[in-house]
Amino acid sequence: MTARAADRARYDRATAHLDAPVAIVDLEAFDANADDLLRRAGGKPVRVASKSVRCRALLERVLAREGFAGVMAFTLAESLWLARSGFDDVLLAYPSADRAGFAELAADPKLAAAVTVMVDDPAQLDLIDAARAGGREVVRVCLELDTSLKLLGGRVRVGARRSPLHSPAQVAEAARTVARRPGFRLVGIMAYEGHIAGVGDAVAGRPVRSRAIRLMQAAARRELAERRAAVVRAVRAVAPELEFVNGGGTGSVQHTAAEDAVTEIAAGSGLYVPRLFDNYTSFRGRPAALFALPVVRRPGVGVVTVLGGGYPASGPAGRDRLPVPYLPEGLRYDPQEGPGEVQTPLLGSPADDLLIGDKVWFRHAKAGELCERFDTLHLVEGDRVTGSVPTYRGEGRTFL
Question: How far apart are CA 223 and CA 379, in angstroms?
Fold first, then answer.
């Protein structure tokens, strides 16, 4: 029996009492992935990206481990909810226009102490001030550095379009703007190198493309390390009591951690290890989060139909954004249909061994987005479900 076949047997036994669709987290794999993130971080604390987990119980589980510290949230409403729930170090990774949330933040000392908001434009400070509604608490601020690699005088850009702050001079001027504004305190810098951390460098069947990605990422790492160090020096001249410099992502943990200027690493997807993280040469994780769909039809030889399945991930539309049939091994989509909104045909010889009601296990393309489809994650240890915990959705929270 292969390792994957053994996992299928375990998961089927563990969830025999549960009707599919059902989602699980294999706690042994989850914990092993957490250990691997810490090993690659080389002693620097890892801040957990909540968008890649979207489950308070699992955020609490990983943050209870030595080496993990703080949450990186994705909306202000989520940040405030987590802070009210007892998370005392929440970095909002994206600018917000949530006026009601800013009014709440500025009026509550506990929330103001726990939550740091993201800024890359003076207009965002104006919005916060206009939303205060009389609240006088000092708002903690983090500046985001644009990590993109610019070539040929800026005519070619590699990397996500995020912050407009690219050069040390631009970030230093933004720091001075914050320092001059009463009611704000600059405490951090964040830089997410998505073109390094979020792009696999070993694309199956594409050796030339894979080589090009590795060359691009090596050049981007060198350029960013030098520029990030210069940015931190420039900002510390304005704000010498800067608390943190956050960088990285699951795919670049060890590289970012090697930079002296970086004080903490951000990671989250590496806990669940969705399918997009199969294509990296620098690390290997264990799939920890899976979902199962039930077989409801047997249309013919070599074909079964499962209920549901159309759970695409965000990003540019493509096959790599689709869930992948994982267990039993050897199933594939019908190219004329793909995963459907309410049913999905699957092809392959393993289909002939599946009966009505059997489970087919899938892996999602990205990490936390799976939790927008399920309200409960069943926690598997060995061949037993030892607990069931709500996702954000299960707690009635759909932040985006």
Answer: 42
The pairing of beta strand 264-267 with beta strand 324-327: unpaired
Q: Which residue has the tokens 């590289």?
A: 255
Strand partners, 142: 118, 188
Contact 244, 190 (CB under 8 A): no
Give the N- to C-terminal CA distance of the chain in Å, as an integer.
Answer: 42
| Cis previous bond, 390, omega within 30 | no
What element of type H or E holds 148? Answer: none
Beta strands in the chain (DSSP E): 22-26, 46-49, 68-73, 90-92, 115-119, 139-144, 149-151, 156-158, 184-191, 244-247, 264-267, 289-300, 303-307, 324-327, 332-333, 343-347, 359-363, 376-381, 384-390
Which whole-number Å values give the CA distances from 270 to 40, 287, 319, in the listed order? Answer: 11, 9, 21
| pTM > 0.90 | yes
Within 13 Å and on the Cβ side, how many CA atoms surround 112? 19
- Would you say 70 and 82 are in contact if contact means Cβ atoms under 8 Å apart? no
Helix (H, G, I), strand (E, B) or coil at 295: strand
Tens-digit pLDDT profile for the chain (400 aa)?
799 999 999 999 999 999 999 999 999 999 999 999 999 999 999 999 999 999 999 999 999 999 999 999 999 999 999 999 999 999 999 999 999 999 999 999 999 999 999 999 999 999 999 999 999 999 999 999 998 887 777 777 777 888 999 999 999 999 999 999 999 999 999 998 877 766 767 677 777 777 777 777 777 788 888 999 999 999 999 999 999 999 999 988 999 999 999 999 999 999 999 999 888 877 789 999 999 999 999 999 999 999 999 999 998 888 989 999 999 999 999 999 999 999 999 999 999 999 999 999 999 999 999 999 999 999 999 999 999 999 999 999 999 8
**What does each C-alpha distance from 69 to 77, 112, 139, 287 come to in angstroms?**
20, 18, 21, 23
Rounded alpha-carbon distances, angstroms, from residue 204 to 201, 278, 281, 284? 9, 9, 12, 15
